[in-house]
Amino acid sequence: LEEEIYMEQPEGFKVKGKENLVCKLRKSLYGLKQAPRQWYKKFDSFMMSQGYDRTTSDHCVFMKKFSDDDFIILL
Predict the structure, then answer these.
(1) What's the average model confidence in pLDDT over 41-51?
(2) How would you class 5 by CB atoms within 10 Å of its CB: exposed for 0-12, middle for 13-18, buried for 19 or more?
(3) What is the mean pLDDT of residues 33-37?
């Protein structure tokens, strides 16, 4: 996460005597506003590690070129 996010203790995980304490998140959780951005950053990093390039016109389109003029486009 790029910012600090705190949340109340989830039901079933509350520590007796410390019910008013909050949890600081170290990773994104499903349902957070930041979750889609975090998922895209991880996906983008994976695609780059596999040899794909992100197009400049649309950052959701990835392309991989091969030496024999073949290519793969992923949307």
Answers:
(1) 92
(2) middle
(3) 86
HSE value, Cβ hemisphere, 13 Å, CA-based, for 69:
0
- Can you give the residue ranges of every domain in the chain? 6-74
CA distance 49 to 15: 41
CA distance 49 to 45: 6
Residue type at 53?
D
As a 3-state breakdown, the chain gives helix, strand, coil percent values, each rounded to 5, of 20, 20, 60
Whole-model pTM: value is: 0.65
Joined tokens for residue 9: 């203790």
